[in-house]
Every structure is written in structure tokens, then in C-alpha cells.
Known about the structure:
Layout: H1 2-74, H2 77-80, H3 83-92, H4 96-99, E1 105-111, E2 114-118, H5 123-145, H6 152-166, H7 186-204, E3 220-221, H8 227-236, H9 252-264, E4 279-280
Antiparallel strand pairs: 1-2, 3-4
Amino acid sequence: MKPLRLALFAAGLALLAARPALAQAAEAGATAATDAQRTMLWFVLTTLVLVLMVFVLLFVALLSWMKPQLRQLYALPTVHDTWSGRVLGLLVGDARLVRGDVRDELLDHDYDGIHEFDNDLPPWWKYGFYATIVFAIGYVTYYHVLKTGQLQGAEYAAEMQQAALLIAATPDDPNQVTTYTALTAPADLSSGKSIFATNCAPCHGANAEGKVGPNLTDDYWLHGGELNHVYKTIKFGVNGKGMVAWKGKLSGKQILQVTSYALSLHGTHPANAKPAQGEKEQSTGKPVANL
């Protein structure tokens, strides 16, 4: 049995040794396949361009060779004024299909030596205008009469709903709606007071009267005074306003504690309170448990 075990062990070592080489060979094979596909694509595109150029040259040569016969055919009364005749006219040098029948026709009207000329509207412009009328009728019928299609407002709302489904609601998602209510237990408010004194007082004042940051005791708020709005402001901060994000420094429980404490100071009217900032909004909150 020993020789068999030694053989199996040696085979395993050989496979482990060959593993990087196999991986490199597979990667090289994939790269070669990609290069071959890219080369084939460029070859097909180049061939198509060359065929198209040959076709154009042959068409121009055939047109030059048959131009006398085409002019005779175009001069026939039964052909000259038809739609196909006007297309044929483009091939022999008559641009009526593009510029219209009347060109610089002098009208019997002049004023102070100024003469008036008449010109047809270009047919391509007239047909384009008719196409816009048809499109407008179809658009109004589809969107406003039958109401089959979505208007801009409904389409925007549907796209926002689809986008919301693609965004996973995580604790670090600033768009996630929270439903916390204020903590009222003395231990939570005491912890919130300690956190506020350490982290918030330098900007908002020891009694939340406001210093660099706004006054937190009045009815005015810059980013919402409801508990979940204040919680979000503390957690994610406010870019460009000096309010840092505390989500990496405080836990969710600590953020709710300091939020509850800050809202408990509402209406305390501290001395040297900073003037009101933002919109008037009454902060509200109810006890919450099991955070």
C-alpha cells in the first residue's frame, strides 16, 4: 500500500504545482480568444466598407454611362411630372424634388423699384411639416385621449419607484426612513447629556443655546425638528455646513440618546440664546423601547 500512497501523494503535489500554470494557460487562452474575436470583427467591418465603396463606384459609373438614356426617359411627359420622375430628375441634375417647381419667378408687383420673387417651399420641408401634424395627432390620441402612455410626471414617479427597488435599505442608507421615538428613561437622558456635553456643546453651547451651530431649544430648525430628522442630521451630518457625521463615532443607541436629550431641552429658554434659524417646526416624540 505504501507505493500506492506515495504515488497518490506525488500526483497531488504535481497537480498543485501545475495549478498556477493551468490558470495562466486558461487566462492566456481567454485573452487569445478575445483578440481573435476583435480581429474578426475588424475584418468584417473593413470588408463591408470596401464592398460599399465598390458598390457606390459602380453605381456612379453606371449612372454616368446611362445618363443620356435617363435624360430621354425624364423628358417624356408621362414621366416628367410624376413622383418617380422627380426622383429620376435628381439623377440627371434636376433638383425640383428638393427645391420645388417655382424658383425665382418674378411677380407682377414692385414697390419703389423693389421686385418680388416667388419661390416654392421645398417639398422636403412641406412633407416634414405634414409628418409633424400626423405625429401630433397620434401623440395627443395616445397620451391624452386614450391615456395609454405615461406622461412625464407618471413616468418620473415610476422610474423613481424602480430606482428605489434597486437601492438596498441598509442602516447606512441616508434615504432610509426611520420610525424612532424619543427615549425618556432617566438613564438614557443622562447618557445623552454626557454625549452632548462631550461632542455637541462646543458648537451648540452647554445648554444648546447655540454658538457656531444653531440654537436647539427654540421652534426653528434648519434640517427638520422631528426626532427622526434630528437623528438623521446627527448620524450623517450636513456637508458644507460644519455638521460632521457621527455614525462612525457613536452607536445607533448613543445617537438616539443624544437626540432625545437635545429635544428634551426644547423650550428651556437658556441665557444668551442664538437667534432663530431655519423653519418653524414643533419637535415631537414618544417613548421607545428595545432599540
